[in-house]
Design a protein that fits this description.
The chain has about 250 residues and is α/β, with parallel strands linked by helices. Strands 1-2-3-4-5-6-7-8 form an 8-stranded parallel barrel, surrounded by 4 helices. The longest helix has 21 residues. It is globular.
């Protein structure tokens, strides 16, 4: 398994120094709404490092709504086209569709209509991912962060319905724990599992709390998962020390 760390562009050097296999950056880093002249300096800065951004998260900004009565489909399409193209240029492999603010269903909006909108977004993103040799990972978010796709089981229904080779499911240990979802759902998603996020109690770094890592890892092994695992957590005062501790903990497992 390859271990990575979520960070911003300013944290790449620190993640590299800690010894991670890859980094996970926010999609906004590639400036999908900005011209090529804004992107090229960022591209050069990313490629100057040995550790590469194989994974990407926060697919959509909060104001780019994909459910509800005010969806601007053309704006969404253009944003994704640029984003996936630029991510592919710097070695991206998997893009996470979490984006709780963008996907949250407005109060009073028909849930079935929202489900159709989400399915269409996932279909479009899957096609663009495939075009750029990427995979899309549908991320379940706990109910405090979004009111739709809250469990691995629910994310799996979207992936199975589309049945696209570039669309799969992400398991985030923090959200799994918050929702009280059983590890057995990880095994049920085994044919679609393409990425993982991890943290520990209080969303601190792995190894600092009481999460059942033995059970989590056993479920991943049962699912035959051996791809990437990104640390996504809140760091304390000594980020460099905690990054190394988290990586050492995960590699021991």
């Amino acid at each position: 398994m390859r271990f990575g760390c979520c960070t911003g562009i300013e944290g790449i050097a620190g993640v590299e120094a800690a010894g991670y296999d890859y980094i996970e950056l926010p999609v906004g880093t590639v400036r999908p709404g900005s011209p090529e002249s804004d992107w090229q300096p960022i591209r050069r800065e990313i490629l100057a490092h040995e550790v590469k951004p194989e994974a990407w998260n926060v697919l959509l900004p909060r104001d780019l709504h994909i459910t509800g009565p005010d969806v601007d489909s053309e704006r969404v399409r253009k944003y994704l086209e640029v984003a996936f193209d630029r991510i592919g240029q710097v070695g991206g492999r998997v893009v996470v569709f979490g984006s709780g603010g963008a996907r949250t269903v407005p109060d009073g909006f028909p849930r079935e209509d929202a489900r159709h909108q989400l399915s269409e977004l996932i279909r479009l993103a899957g096609e663009l991912a495939h075009r750029n040799a990427l995979r899309l990972a549908i991320e379940p978010l706990n109910r405090r962060e979004s009111n739709v796709i809250n469990t691995v089981a629910e994310a799996l229904t979207y992936a199975e319905a589309l049945n696209h080779p570039s669309v799969g499911v992400l398991v985030d240990f923090y959200h799994l724990d918050e929702e009280g979802e059983p590890f057995s759902d990880i095994v049920e998603a085994r044919h679609y599992l393409v990425h993982t996020h991890t943290a520990d109690t209080g969303r601190r770094h792995p190894g600092s709390g009481s999460y059942d890592y033995a059970g989590f890892m056993a479920a991943l092994r049962s699912a035959g998962y051996d791809a990437r695992m990104s640390v996504e957590c809140a760091w304390g005062r000594d980020v460099d020390k905690e990054r190394k501790e988290a990586l050492e903990f995960l590699r021991r497992l």
